[in-house]
């Protein structure tokens, strides 16, 4: 799929983060610098950001914001991946953030809804069932970084809609 090595050319740190706006965005405003489980930290960073969004915008407006952040994330992830020399470096978490926002659009604004959304999204993002794994392995660049998380979000949304069909959250 790509010729990127798996070990970054540079060690990402706060200096790397602020060296280019794309790095700051791709690393989820710093949440991707976590030493362990950066994807989980990126997903957690999405929660307070979404809490602010939902206070300021309608769900439809948030969906449009997600589209914009997806496109911005494609750009930022591509630049950051090239700078690191690693296509989908674990610290690039803007994909987790926008995907989590999409999932949160489909759950009630209560702790149970948010917990289920977080848990299901992380499960699908980590285990990558088909076709998520296919896209993850074959789509290069920033789009490749972003698309597998959008698909994981879609799986989580489908399960959440099924749960909500039978149970009230």
From TrEMBL:
EC number(s) of the enzyme?
3.1.3.27
One cellular-component annotation, GO: plasma membrane
Note whether Cell inner membrane occurs among the keywords: yes
* YutG/PgpA domain sequence ranges: 25-163
The protein's location, in the record's own words, is: Cell inner membrane
Alphabetic keyword roster: Cell inner membrane, Cell membrane, Hydrolase, Lipid degradation, Lipid metabolism, Magnesium, Membrane, Metal-binding, Phospholipid degradation, Phospholipid metabolism, Transmembrane, Transmembrane helix
| Pathways per UniProt | Phospholipid metabolism; phosphatidylglycerol biosynthesis; phosphatidylglycerol from CDP-diacylglycerol: step 2/2
What is one Gene Ontology biological process annotated in the Swiss-Prot or TrEMBL record?
A: phosphatidylglycerol biosynthetic process
Topology of the protein relative to the lipid bilayer: Multi-pass membrane protein
Cofactor(s) annotated in UniProt = Mg(2+)
Q: Which CDD domains does the annotation name?
A: PgpA
Q: Which residues cross the membrane?
A: 49-76, 97-121, 150-168
Query: Does the record bear Membrane in its keywords?
Result: yes
Catalysis: reaction(s): a 1,2-diacyl-sn-glycero-3-phospho-(1'-sn-glycero-3'-phosphate) + H2O = a 1,2-diacyl-sn-glycero-3-phospho-(1'-sn-glycerol) + phosphate
Q: Which InterPro entries does the protein's record reference?
A: PgpA (IPR026037), PgpA-like_sf (IPR036681), YutG/PgpA (IPR007686)
| Any one Gene Ontology molecular-function term assigned to this protein's record | phosphatidylglycerophosphatase activity
Major localization listed first in the record, in broad terms: membrane
What the protein does comes down to: Lipid phosphatase which dephosphorylates phosphatidylglycerophosphate (PGP) to phosphatidylglycerol (PG).
Protein name, please? Phosphatidylglycerophosphatase A
Q: State the organism's lineage.
A: Bacteria, Pseudomonadati, Pseudomonadota, Betaproteobacteria, Neisseriales
